[in-house]
Amino acid sequence: MEQNGWEESGLETYNIYMDEAPTSDEANGDEGWEVEFRVVGQSIDDGDPENNAVLAGLDLVDLINLRDALQQEIDNFALTALEAQALVGDPGEELMP
Predict the structure, then answer these.
(1) In what order do the strands lie in the sheet with 13-25?
(2) DSSP codes of every residue in 71-88
């Protein structure tokens, strides 16, 4: 049972929020959105996580697993881009594993 953000095991739970703010790209005058993520401990969260948080009630292990999954996707994207760039540079040469 969770009480004030602390589970029975004594670990804090966390909520992740995504904040958006309008930005303007001065180079071409386009307006876009800047996104920032905040991680807030449930015990000090004075917001409404059930309605406003992107993810609510994560424990530390969940946060570590989320970080690892995001890092893997970032690494996969970077590797794919690097391989594509290498193939454009010299299409006859194969990449070493």
Answers:
(1) 30-41, 13-25, 55-59
(2) HHHHHHHHHHHHHHHHHH
Structure tokens at 59: 């424990």
Cβ contact 60:39 at 8 Å: no
pLDDT in tens, the chain (97 residues): 444 554 556 788 999 998 888 887 666 666 788 888 889 998 899 888 888 888 888 899 999 999 999 999 999 999 999 998 888 876 555 555 5
DSSP 43: G
Partnered with residue 19 across adjacent β-strands are 36
pTM, two decimal places: 0.59
DSSP 8-state symbol, 9:
T
Q: How would you classify the pairing of strands 30-41 and 55-59? A: unpaired
Bridge partner list, 16: 39, 55
With vertex at residue 14, the alpha carbon angle to CA 12 and CA 16, rounded to the nearest 5 degrees, is: 170
